[in-house]
Design a protein that fits this description.
The complex is a heterodimer of chains A (345) and B (305). Chain A contains twelve helices and ten strands. With 345 residues, chain A is an alpha+beta fold. In chain A, a hairpin with a 7-residue loop joins β1 and β2. In chain A, α5 packs antiparallel against α7, α7 packs across α8 and α8 crosses α12. Chain A starts with 24 loop residues before the first strand and ends with a helix. In chain B, α2 crosses α3 and α3 packs parallel to α5. In chain B, the strands form four sheets. In chain B, strands 1, 2, 3, 4, 5 and 6 form a six-stranded mixed sheet that branches. A four-stranded antiparallel sheet of chain B has the order 12-11-13-14. A two-stranded antiparallel ribbon of chain B has the order 7-10. The chains are: A alpha+beta (345), B alpha+beta (305). The interface between A and B is large, with 40 and 37 residues. β9 of chain A pairs antiparallel with β14 of chain B, so a sheet runs across the interface. Chain A: InterPro entries: ExoRNase_PH_dom1 (IPR001247), ExoRNase_PH_dom2 (IPR015847), ExoRNase_PH_dom2_sf (IPR036345), PNPase/RNase_PH_dom_sf (IPR027408), Ribosomal_Su5_D2-typ_SF (IPR020568), RNase_PH (IPR050080). Chain A: This is 3'-5'-exoribonuclease family protein isoform 2. Chain A: Belongs to the RNase PH family. Chain A: It comes from Hibiscus syriacus.
Chain lengths: 345, 305
């Protein structure tokens, strides 16, 4: 409203950034202990904590549909985020009986900045929870003040009442899923501003990918394994006892399927993160195909293999991944499945 | 949108496939082309500031009222504009009475953003006495029938109602000049609002992998489509608001294509609204005789008798 100068003659903004510069990003996953997945995402001084509870069982009395989208509940502190947060959900295709809740708590609220940070935090939290996603969703805003397109508006710039564009993209597919724009702007300038926001989204996507990829090798995989171990029994010792007694029990088989499903979920996500091919001879790929083939053909051999892997609980947890791959490699189980899957790729 | 509401009406799989397959060969179930808008009819009620818009089978009623209130502390010289939506279960069984649903909130916000952030209505001219009295304009939007694309229909209803609305004229009086006198319509002709431009909302539907794009989706198409985007543009080619909350992702070039389409549609819709309003205003002026001169004459005549 007032004639404040948002860009100095030297081309610097109020907080010292250049027009095309983003605020500093910081992200952390697994911050809420009780949640299935959680993340903190900071863009400058805007800080958002997202927690995902789920997937949970959910009575599907009305889901009779050719394409089953999962149901997501989003609880927000501020109503403003309500529809924006849904942007994240729209892009997640889940197995039908999943029910998740995403909870946001934005501590330092700014408008479009919060919106973007919330979406980024939610993406991370969902990734942390191991929810299968088509792609990650990242978001960033851009504005137009003093005839200059500005990337990633901070609170003061946002409250100036100028045009602001918030974009959410699927970086791998290069598609825009969320697009919000306020105040009046001619078409050609809008194109520039939107392009700038998309570039910002890509930068955020790179940051998130790097961050997840950095500790993917051990942490996430281990986490996947550790988590999967906990599913059949309440703790590992109980699981061990059960296993030694009932080898081919049906209950156990169900446990296996559950376990493999979780591994699949994680690996699907990991593979999505960098494209399947980049995984190469990585142990994750083997798990992936194993789980995939398990899904398609439920065979006894696979059950047995899963069982053996399950028994290796201790060694997997502590050993390097090479051990795991060795264990897998040594198995004489259905090499045809894996090789055929590999050739298909 | 509707897929998330538990008691939402659902199309059968066969119907969905039929709509999708027909769309692949650019045929819509109501016989329109992909970029063809449904017929708009705008009606006005007897009073000022109320409109009823019919867009295909969708019907929305818009009512504008005004009240003198104290302005916000940070904006002492500006009147206010607020939008309220009413989704009655009569229009669609998935609308729950009382609680505003997700769609109701979204619709209100899209129209609010289009009208307010683009400063379509001059709020400063609504000030009577700075810091004490300003006009608060309230737009009520009632959904009467949900035939799809409520946002566009509600937006047109809001604009038509705003354009026909007349507020009573006010002047300051009293000893200190701080007293507000509201003149009844018989004494002084009520004043129209200052509307700078008409932000027109145009909604697009996206259909999944085939990359089908269409304008003004009907209720059935809404049940099938994977994503929607509403662009609010005016006839001058400015973009006033864009809302695409999730759903199917679309490449950037499609967005720019939508913008072009929206701009051209907005021009024709603006013309339709203006024509309808003009026709109504002329008729209304002819019908209502509230000029003080005529009453004066009457009185004099009576005295002479």
């Amino acid at each position: 409203m007032s004639k404040t100068e948002y860009v100095s003659p030297e081309g610097l903004r109020l907080d010292g950034r250049r027009p095309m510069e983003m605020r500093q990003l910081r992200a952390e996953i697994g911050t809420v202990a009780k949640a299935n997945g959680s993340a903190v995402f900071e863009m400058g001084n805007t800080k958002v904590i997202a927690a995902v509870y789920g997937p949970r069982e959910f009575s599907c009395w009305f889901v009779v549909d050719d394409e089953c989208n999962s149901v997501f509940q989003v609880q927000n502190r501020s109503q403003q985020l309500n529809d924006q947060a849904l942007a994240v959900n729209g892009d997640i295709t889940c197995h039908p009986p999943d029910h998740g809740g995403v909870h946001f708590d934005s501590s330092n609220a700014s408008f479009s900045g919060t919106r973007s940070a919330c979406i980024n935090a939610a993406t991370l939290a969902l990734a942390d929870a191991g929810i299968p996603m088509r792609d990650i969703v990242t978001s960033c805003s851009a504005g137009y003040l003093n005839s200059t397109p500005l990337l990633d508006l901070n609170y003061i710039e946002d409250s100036a009442g100028g045009p602001d564009v918030t974009v959410g993209i699927l970086p791998k597919l290069d598609k825009v899923t969320l697009l919000q724009m306020e105040a009046k702007l001619p078409v050609d300038i809008f194109e520039n501003v939107m392009g700038l926001a998309v570039e910002g989204c890509k930068a955020v996507a790179n940051y998130i990918k790097e961050m997840l990829w950095k500790d993917e090798d051990d942490a996430l995989l281990k986490q996947a394994l550790a988590l999967s171990m906990n599913i059949p029994g309440s703790d590992s010792s109980v699981g061990d006892a059960e296993m030694s007694e009932a080898t081919n029990d049906q209950e156990l088989a169900m446990g296996m399927s559950c376990y493999l499903f979780v591994v699949l979920t994680y690996l699907e996500f990991l593979c999505h993160m960098d494209g399947l091919h980049n995984c190469g001879s990585h142990v994750g790929l083997k798990f992936y195909y194993l789980a995939k083939s398990y899904q398609s053909s439920i065979t006894k051999e696979l059950n047995m293999l899963a069982l053996q892997m399950f028994m290796l609980n201790g060694s997997i947890d502590q050993s390097e991944e090479s051990d795991v791959s060795k264990v897998l490699g040594d198995q004489s189980f259905m090499p045809s499945i894996i090789s055929s899957e590999l050739t298909q790729m | 949108m509707e897929g998330r509401i538990s008691n939402a009406w659902r199309l059968t799989v066969n119907d969905k496939n039929f709509i999708k397959t027909a769309l692949l060969s650019e045929i819509r179930i109501d016989g329109r082309k992909p970029f063809e808008y449904r017929k708009i009819s705008i009606k006005f009620d007897r009073g000022d500031g109320s409109s009823e818009v019919q867009l295909g089978q969708t019907r929305v009623m818009g009512i504008v009222t005004a009240q003198l209130v104290q302005p916000y502390k940070d904006r002492p010289k500006e009147g206010t504009l607020s939008i309220f939506t009413e989704f009655s279960p009569m229009a669609d069984p998935s609308f729950e009475p009382g609680r505003p649903g997700e769609l109701a909130v979204e619709l209100g916000r899209i129209i609010d953003r289009g009208l307010r952030e683009s400063r379509a209505v001059d709020t400063e001219s609504l000030c009577i006495l700075a810091g004490k009295f300003v006009w608060a304009i309230r737009i009520d939007l009632h959904i009467l029938d949900n035939g799809g694309n409520l946002v566009d229909a509600a937006n047109i209803a809001a604009l038509a109602a705003l354009l026909t609305f007349r507020r009573p004229e006010c002047s300051l009086g009293g000893e200190d000049g701080q007293e507000v006198i509201v003149h009844p319509p018989e004494i002084r002709e009520p004043l129209p609002l200052t509307v700078h431009h008409l932000p027109i909302a145009i909604t697009f539907g996206f259909f999944g992998n085939e990359g089908i794009l269409l304008i003004d989706p009907t209720h059935n198409e809404e049940a099938v489509m994977g994503g929607r985007m509403t662009m609010t543009v005016n006839a001058n080619g400015d973009i006033c608001a864009i809302q695409k909350g999730g759903g199917e992702g679309v490449p950037q070039r499609v967005i720019m294509k939508c913008l072009q389409l929206a701009t051209s549609k907005a021009a024709s819709i603006t013309k339709q609204i203006k024509d309808a309003v003009e026709a109504f205003t002329e008729r209304a002026l002819r019908k209502i005789k509230r000029h003080p001169t005529s009453t004066d004459v009457d009185v004099k005549e009576k005295q002479n008798q």
